Amino acid sequence: MVTIRLFCAAGMSTSLLVNKMKEAATKKGIEADIAAFPEGQMHEHLEGVNVALLGPQVGYRLGAAKEICGPKGVPVNVIPMVDYGMMNGEKVLDFALKLAGK
């Protein structure tokens, strides 16, 4: 089981990406717990998480996110703009898995 959390401005468009990522995980036979939350709630949603991803619209918060995620051992990075814009769940899932070392 891999646990992935996406953080964005409000969680709206990212929830669509979450669904696409879940579909991609199912196709690949990967058991995944994927959910999206507002970036301001990051500190509340990291328990048991393998990787955290930021939506491009909050990419400027990467430094702060690393300060929150680092002590918990959770890798964090910004979702590539093109993959986010295209809602490419498979590529974003692969990006997350690579960050998580899975």
Model description:
This protein has helices at 12-28, 62-69, 81-85, 89-100; strands spanning 2-8, 32-38, 51-54, 76-78. With 102 residues, the protein is of the alpha/beta class. A 4-stranded parallel beta sheet has the order 2-1-3-4, sandwiched between helices.
* Beta strand count: 4
Q: What would you call the structural class?
A: alpha/beta
Enumerate the spans where pLDDT stays under 50 for 5 or more consecutive residues: none
Helix content: 40-55%
The profile of the biggest β sheet is: 4 strands, parallel
Radius of gyration, in angstroms, nearest whole number: 12 Å
H and E string: EHEEHEHH
**Shape descriptor:** globular
Beta fraction of the residues? 15-25%
- The average pLDDT score comes to 95
N-C termini distance: 10 Å
Number of helices: 4
Strands of the widest sheet, in order across it, are: 2-1-3-4
Write the layout of secondary structure elements.
Elements: E1 2-8, H1 12-28, E2 32-38, E3 51-54, H2 62-69, E4 76-78, H3 81-85, H4 89-100
Parallel strand pairs: 1-2, 1-3, 3-4
Short description:
With 102 residues, the chain is an alpha/beta fold. The protein has helices spanning 12-28, 62-69, 81-85, 89-100, and strands at 2-8, 32-38, 51-54, 76-78.
What characteristics describe this protein?
single chain; 102 residues; alpha/beta; four-stranded parallel β-sheet; 4 helices; globular
